[in-house]
Design a protein that fits this description.
single chain; alpha+beta; 7-stranded mixed beta sheet; globular; FIST_C; FIST C-terminal domain-containing protein
Length: 390
């Protein structure tokens, strides 16, 4: 099965494939985009497909198109929320100029590595965009291995190097297995890697961040932690799982992924609150986080708001700001999806995304400017191409 959203003359053409195998999926994507003149293709691929087979076959069929992307914990498709599919976005060469660089071996990544990569990328980007006029503007997309636990360090290096170019993106997923996620670059699939894409366009755009939580007065302080591995051992000088359970009103024996999805904690940074999600409880009663933590960090228990209302309001505000939106490129935490599912609002959220053309994937973490966050929808709203006066 294949679906297409838009024509080859659109600024961004979206296609989707749901087939039995990776080669068939690649064939469907390539066939639908054969007529398009693309600056690049971005693919979000379910772990249902073998990532190496898929990207090798797609690159073979589209050898002249740069292809980037990653594996997912779910897809944001033209029909709304989906799974076991491939969603591809073709960026029209008439509206976009791109340059990209990979980062490999993230386990040994240092800030100077990131700065060196960004300098090389900016030099190439400047050469490619020197013909663009003064109305053009730039943004970045970042896809990163969701199992690397290095997002904050990488984001910090990139943010310090790119100046005023805003970056959004997502951490690659592996369904709900949390075993191995993959990044696509140069016709290959990599783990322990990331890819940063700089994009210049004359189309109007806005970055965005959306979550449906607000802070309460209940606080917890991280009093013991394994910082390198994002493990909190003690909160308020008590075993972490026990103290978290007490603070949010749960029995520690019932802690599971759905519990953490419904009860994230918040961290205050620069006057704003950002969600920090827990991945699991370890056998010793410690808590494994999706985001960086530190001893002395203050965690605030969150209170939920209506996710449909909050998201709908944001999409409407962005539409009014841009005049008209051709697409919302979105990166949504898989725990946000699980929370919405628990509240039996899946159909409403999926329909909201379908109606507003929110396209992207569900993640193990989201990037927004200098921040790595959880349980959030981040992304970029792309306006429509101006129509020349008759």
């Amino acid at each position: 099965m294949a679906k297409q959203n838009g024509s080859a003359t659109d600024s961004i053409v979206v296609v989707q494939a749901k087939t039995n195998g990776p080669q068939e999926a690649a064939d469907e994507i390539a066939r639908q985009l054969a007529a398009a003149d693309l600056a690049m293709l971005v693919v979000f691929v379910s772990p249902f497909y073998d990532p190496k087979e898929f990207i090798a076959e797609l690159s073979r069929q589209m050898p002249d198109v740069p292809i980037f992307g990653c594996t997912t914990a779910g897809e944001l498709s033209p029909g709304g929320w989906d799974e076991d599919s491939v969603v591809a976005m073709g960026f029209n060469a008439a509206d976009f100029v791109i340059a990209a660089r990979p980062l490999f071996d993230l386990a040994t990544f240092r800030v100077d590595h990131g700065r060196s990569m960004c300098t090389e990328l900016q030099n190439e980007f400047a050469q490619r965009t020197e013909h663009c006029d003064h109305t053009d503007d730039s943004f970045g997309l970042l896809f990163i291995d969701g199992m690397c636990q290095r997002e904050e360090t990488i984001m910090s290096a990139i943010y310090a190097s790119l100046g005023d170019i805003p970056v959004v993106g997502g951490s690659a997923g592996d369904g709900l297995r949390f075993e191995k996620s993959w990044i696509f670059y140069g016709g290959e699939a990599f783990t322990n890697a990331a890819v940063l894409i700089l994009i210049r366009t004359r189309l109007p755009f806005r970055t965005f961040k959306c979550d449906h939580f607000e802070p309460t007065s209940t606080k917890m302080v991280v009093t013991e932690a394994d910082i390198e591995h994002r493990i909190v051992k003690e909160l308020n000088a008590e075993p972490a799982a026990l103290e978290y359970s007490r603070a949010v009103g749960l029995s520690d024996s019932k802690l599971e992924l759905f519990s953490f999805a419904a009860h994230p904690v918040l961290v205050r940074v620069g006057g704003a609150y950002y969600a920090r999600s827990i991945q699991r409880t370890n056998p010793d009663g410690s808590l494994q986080f999706f985001c960086a933590i530190d001893e002395g960090m203050v965690l605030t228990v969150a209170r939920e708001r209506d996710p449909i209302d909050v998201t709908s309001r944001l999409l409407q505000e962005l539409t009014e700001d841009l005049g008209e939106v051709s697409m919302f490129i979105g990166f949504e935490c898989v725990l946000r999806r699980l929370d919405v599912e628990q509240r039996q609002l899946s159909r409403e959220m999926s329909e909201l995304y379908r109606r507003n053309k929110v396209i992207g994937f569900q993640t193990y973490g989201e990037q927004y400017r200098s921040m790595h966050v959880n349980q959030t929808l981040t992304g970029i709203a792309i306006g429509k191409r101006a129509v020349a006066p008759q």
